[in-house]
Amino acid sequence: MSKITVIGAGSVGATIANDLMIQGTASEIVLVDINKQKAFGEALDIYQGAPFCSPAIVRSGDYEAAANSDIVIITSGLPRKPGQTRLELAQVNVNILKDITPQIVRVAPKAIYIIVSNPVDVLTYVFHKISGLPEHQIIGSGTILDTSRLQSALAKRFFISPKNVHAHVYGEHGDSSFVPWSLVHIANNHVNVYKDSSPDRDRITWKGEEEYEAIEQFVKTSGGQVIKAKGATFYAVAMSVCHLCKCVMSTAGTALTVSTMMHGEYGVDDVCLSTLALVDTTGVRGKIMNHLTDEEVSKLQNSANKLKEVISQITY
Length: 316
Ligand SMILES: NC(=O)c1ccc[n+]([C@@H]2O[C@H](COP(=O)([O-])OP(=O)(O)OC[C@H]3O[C@@H](n4cnc5c(N)ncnc54)[C@H](O)[C@@H]3O)[C@@H](O)[C@H]2O)c1
Fold this sequence. Notes:
Blueprint (H helix, E strand, L loop, with lengths): L2 E5 L3 H12 L5 E5 L3 H12 L9 E4 L10 E4 L11 H22 L4 E4 L4 H12 L6 E3 L3 H15 L6 E2 L18 E2 L2 E2 L3 H4 L14 H19 L4 H14 L5 E10 L5 E12 L2 E5 L6 H19 L4
Parallel strand pairs: 1-2, 1-4, 2-3, 4-5, 5-6
Antiparallel strand pairs: 7-8, 8-9, 10-11, 11-12
Helix pairs in contact: 1-2, 1-8, 3-4, 4-9, 5-7
Bound molecules: nicotinamide-adenine-dinucleotide.
């Protein structure tokens, strides 16, 4: 039995709800949106596929309908308008979060909260400050999507399943994110030596360190490429959030790059960004303190400083 509420029934929220339904992740899915008609239409459309899925209820409603949810996913927000700065958008979406937070926390105080709306690290930080909830209940989707973009890109290059690619994106879900390449392994080999052990050595074209920059640029710009080509990104992010929900529903403990509050780890404090953390039924069980090189630590600190600069300019 699991009840999942999705706040924001736009492209991302509705696709998450549909994925939760298709994958049998929840027994009850509630869609809440300021645009009640949109939430109603999306819930009805998804529910009418119910005969082909595991038994589940999908409905739209107000905050009361979200009472006692196990997981709440926040996807509400506005996209950036032409001429609007990222900072202006941050304030708009922070204001929406301020409107939502007391209403949902009142009815679902025990839920694990997953923040997806952008700028996700800033909103995760603000949610920590205004919700009054324990830290372990708050997870920013952070760089899960960037990490899956990285893993799928490397998987293609090495002719191997993404499941055998241990590579992660750390830092901000945004321009200052980076890959700690010292930790990147393919089927137990460091990325730069895997080719020598692989049966595909004759067709792997990986040149080593000189490839890092291009791969990171691809990860950072591919969301923009999708938006340019089709107007929005929602399939991959929805799949990543649906996976995150499954991890939250298991006691196994799954290592994911989620955005969590930092308390001096790697010299970073009082900001939310992504490092590897263990996720389970408690929400965030704790961070995995992998060894990073000095250069990687300073990249993480740079990412933290960029986020702190935005946070210092918004009102919450
Ligand atoms: N973290 C990630 O990896 C990632 C990836 C893609 C998109 N996003 C973010 O997800 C968010 C949603 O994107 P989208 O494409 O679904 O946008 P969208 O415009 O399609 O949907 C947003 C929805 O939020 C609703 N909303 C606005 N104010 C509200 C309020 N006060 N209460 C309840 N609902 C409200 C709107 O009515 C709309 O239906 C954006 O901030 C986007 O940047 C995050």
